[in-house]
Design a protein that fits this description.
It is found in: Membrane. It is a multi-pass membrane protein. The protein has 17 helices and 3 strands. It has about 450 residues and is an all-alpha fold. The protein folds into 2 domains: about 200 residues, Growth Hormone, Chain: A; about 190 residues, Up-down Bundle (Growth Hormone, Chain: A).
């Protein structure tokens, strides 16, 4: 009789080549985040029609625009601990169902008050989806490919937002603004059966939580990852041991993680503050500095477009370098580009180049923060750690709207605005560098996979 086979799932995933199941999960999580991006940006596409049809002012539309961002922050804070207790898959599925249903219901909103309520509730699902999708990807990908694959998946957000713009441009003239909300609600609901069937629970979570109880489920997942390597009698182990008496929130705030958690929050808060402020107010600032409306819109698009390339490049690069040092440099260079925008002349080409550079650094570094957080926290608190970073960071995106409005209403000069905006980038760079000096990742790849 042969000895019982034992598989350490952390070492197994880190040393095995990517399987078809893992690549399929990367694509499905990309799809989830693309749908998230579509629905998060959807109000911006239909806002002009709401103003015209409902005869409301731009100022009155402010609560509608910010409601989803508030919901996103709340949803991220709630969903993380739930995913660490109940599993990644049920929370992810519930989040997609929730924001799909509420976006669909928004198409039938009779007035602004109902639209605010429905967008706030939809934001709860939107805030829960992205952190859980990135957590599942982090727990099913080998350490040496994790950062690039997480950032590839997160690039789905800008892909979905951009796709929403094209869809809106086609559908609103033909079918009205309600049609965009119908599409934004139906697509997530249509994706649910595929997600339920194709996305397994996190293997790392199953084994780290209750390995004996979940042995058969773990064996089936390993069979899908590498057929013939295990059976239901295989013993599964993990590098991490669960702390059953500690909640996920207390874990990320415990002595070993407290300073790193605060520095992650500070970095991501400043990063989202800058990205959302520039995304919202850059067209107005550039236009007020003498350029046309179309050129201002194009420069802002280049800011977002640069972020797509930045996230992919930095995600690839931090897998091969010191991630904290790399992201610190990216934030500092982003701050320099933002400062230089304020000193630039009225030339379109220079503005476009600096905006693309700022987007490359700032959006790219923000996307990589998910990989940094996923590698920092242990399995039993990973979803909470990533989600709470998203939730606290989301407060930065909410604050950015008020800050931008204040700077414009106070009559700040163009140069003063961009000099001030370089400061949050400096703070983010220093904070992520300090995290690298004070903390270390929760786990590292190990050389052996199977024991008997």
């Amino acid at each position: 009789m042969s000895a019982l086979l034992s598989i350490n799932v952390d070492q197994f995933i880190n040393t095995q080549p990517m399987s078809r199941l893992q690549w399929r999960m990367v694509m499905l999580c990309f799809l989830v985040i693309a749908l998230d991006g579509f629905d998060t940006a959807i109000m911006g596409f239909i806002a002009p029609e709401l103003i015209r049809e409902w005869a409301v002012s731009t100022l009155s539309l402010g609560p509608v625009m910010s409601a989803a961002l508030i919901g996103v922050a709340m949803g991220a804070l709630i969903a993380g601990p739930l995913a660490d207790r109940l599993g990644r898959k049920p929370v992810l599925i519930s989040a997609v169902a929730f924001f799909g249903t509420l976006t669909l219901a928004s198409a039938f909103a009779p007035n602004l008050e109902w639209m605010v309520i429905l967008r706030l509730l939809a934001g709860l699902g939107l805030g829960a989806a992205m952190p859980n999708a990135s957590t599942i990807v982090s727990e099913y990908t080998p350490l040496h490919q994790r950062s690039i694959l997480i950032t590839v998946v997160l690039s789905g957000f800008t892909f979905g937002a951009a796709a929403g713009g094209f869809i809106s441009a086609f559908m609103i003239p033909l079918f009205g603004w309600q049609s965009v909300l119908l599409v934004g609600g139906l697509l997530p609901l249509l994706a649910l059966p595929l997600l339920i069937v194709s996305v397994p629970e996190s293997l790392r979570w199953l084994v780290a939580r209750r390995p004996a109880h979940h042995r058969q489920r773990s064996a089936r997942i390993v069979q899908r990852l590498a057929p013939g390597i295990s059976n239901e009698h295989t013993r599964f182990t993990a590098d991490e041991v669960e702390h059953p008496l500690s909640s996920p929130v207390s874990r990320i705030l415990s002595k070993g993680f407290f300073s790193g958690t605060l520095l992650l929050w500070l970095t991501y808060f400043m990063g989202l503050f800058l990205v959302y402020l520039l995304g919202s107010w850059l067209p107005t600032l550039i236009k007020n500095n003498g350029l046309s409306v179309s050129n201002a819109a194009l420069i802002t698009a280049l800011f977002q477009f640069g972020g797509t390339f930045g996230s992919l490049f930095l995600g690839w690069f931090i897998d091969r370098s010191n991630p904290h040092r790399t992201l610190a440099i990216a934030y500092l260079l982003g701050g320099l580009a933002i400062y230089l925008i304020g000193t630039a002349s009225h030339g379109f080409a220079l503005f476009a180049l600096l905006a693309a550079a700022a987007g490359f650094c700032m959006n790219g570094a923000n996307a990589c923060m998910y990989a940094l957080a996923a590698n920092f926290y242990p399995t039993q608190a990973r979803a909470t750690g990533v989600s709470w970073m998203r939730g606290i960071g989301g407060l930065g995106s909410i604050a950015s709207g008020f800050a931008g409005a204040h700077m414009l209403s106070a009559g700040w000069t163009f140069a003063t605005v961009f000099s001030a905006l370089a400061v949050p980038a400096l703070i983010a760079g220093i904070a992520v560098f300090l995290k690298g000096c004070l903390t270390s990742p929760a786990s590292l790849a190990q050389p052996h996979t199977l024991t008997r």
